[in-house]
Amino acid sequence: MPNALTGTLIRERRLALGLKQSDVAQAAGLSAPYLNLIEHNRRKVGGVALDRLAMVLGVAAETLAEGAGGALVEEVRAAAAAVAEATPELDRVEDFVGRFPGWAAVVVAQHRRSGQLEHAVAALNDRITHDPHLSASLHEVLSSVSSVRSTAAILAETEEIAPEWRARFLRNLHQDSERLAAGAESLVAYLDGSDALRDQTVAAPQEEMEAWLAARGWQVAEVETPDGATVLQEEVAQLASADARAMAGAFLARAQAEAAALPQARLAELSQDWAQDPALIARAAGVSVLTVMRRMALQPGSRAGLVVCDASGTMLFRKPVEGFALPRFGTACPLWPLFAALGRPMAAMEAVVEMAGRAARRFRALAICEVHLPRGFSGPDLREAGMLLLPLDPGAVVAAPVHRVGTSCRICPRGGCPARREPSILPEVG
Q: At what angle do helices 226-236 and 242-261 cross, to 10 degrees?
């Protein structure tokens, strides 16, 4: 079906071939004034007329009708929306794509590349800050450098050294230099390794467990059947570390208990009745709100993200969602509703949040903190807070105020934030 830019495409093709408008009109059996109206998108063209024009211009009629396609237009719109300080003419984006599809593709490619680089910066920041292997390698290199420097200083600044001591210093210098070379080689090999290899390097049992869940698509629907639970337990037994196996076993035990209390079919039924409100579903099912949140996030095909933390703010569970970056450890944005919920146990928190970054995705964030008393009134109260992240469709009209949040201060580009703890390594934006 011809689009609004078919005439523009006809004109661009004619000019590229160096043909006169009157000659093309005559060859296609059209009048020159009518072709002029078509080329300026004032008249629609289709059917036999479009076929004749395509034949004269030596191009497929489908190319003139479909143009650059809606996908490229939408990607250009997304690229424009990611640059807050610019005000591009969005009402003319189709004209831009139609006239200059090559340049439009360049803009889209640069937008994608920028997104990939931002993701890489976030990953490298987490790795440099928290990766124990990298920390140990850097410590080894720095230690070797210090040893070489101190030994070399003694040899250079001491005029008279006994031959046996000079030989000892030289031997130490040789050993330290070999240790430095080995440490540097190991560090370079680690940093230059493939992404897949680095992703397999797990720094903590929690990450190992979450990597297993991510490989399963973040769903454990098998817990609702006895045979499925056995399969899951066999998978857990294959995890590398004993601590990860213990954590995954505890996770499966709770998932199985919560599936028995709120089966998938019952959850789907209540979700339709209560519009995905975890509090109302929990009341109808007779379970806790956090149970409902976990069940909603871990269902097959669920688009929801979930973050659970304890009273210290340490994240105990992280199911990511596209557009909302989750740090690997507990240095998250203090403006998340998750942390506000910690100070108000059993108070429901709901907010529309917008994550900092080029995409600026928005989410409906539902948070609540539950208190457990494992030793009764004489013991400590253990707080567990959860935040369910439900993606909002791009362009959706939001009546509630939008709360602007980030991932962690170190890689958050948002300027003027009252909760900032440290400067960002990225340029600030408004």
A: 160
In angstroms, the CA 179 to CA 146 distance is: 12
Question: Of all residues in the chain, what percent are helix, strand and coil, respectively (each to 5)?
Answer: 55, 10, 30
Q: Which residues pair with 318 in a beta bridge?
A: 307
- Under DSSP, the state recorded for 380 is P
| Average per-residue pLDDT for the chain | 81
Query: Residues 4-42: pLDDT tens digits?
Result: 567 777 887 788 778 888 888 888 888 888 888 888 877
List the one residue out of 11, 17, 3 whose CA is nearest residue 58.
Answer: 17
Tracing tokens 């707080």 back to the chain, one arrives at: 383
- Banded model confidence at residue 191, pLDDT cuts 50, 70, 90: low
Do the Cβ atoms of 298 and 219 come closer than 8 Å?
A: yes
Cβ-proximal residues to 27 (8 Å cutoff; 6+ apart), any chain: 52, 56
Q: In the structure encoding, which two tokens stand for residue 352, read together? A: 């529309």
pLDDT at 389: 94
| Straight-line distance from the first to the last Cα atom of the chain, in angstroms, rounded to the nearest whole number | 42
Please identify which residue in the block is written with the tokens 């519009």: 275
Amino acid, res. 397:
V
Range 382-394 burial, b when 16+ CB lie within 10 A, else e: ebbbbbbbbbbee
Rounded Cα distance, 305 and 318, in Å: 8
Cβ contact 140:179 at 8 Å: yes
Sign of the CA dihedral 313, 389, 211, 222?
A: positive
Q: What is the total residue count of the chain?
A: 430
Q: Compute how many other C-beta atoms are within 10 angstroms of the C-beta atom of residue 139.
A: 11
> Please, which residues bridge with residue 306 across strands?
319, 388
How many angstroms separate the CA atoms of 363 and 392, rounded? 5
DSSP string, 113-167: HHHHHHHHHHHHHHHHHH-HHHHHHHHHHHHHHHHHHHHHHHHHH-S---HHHHH
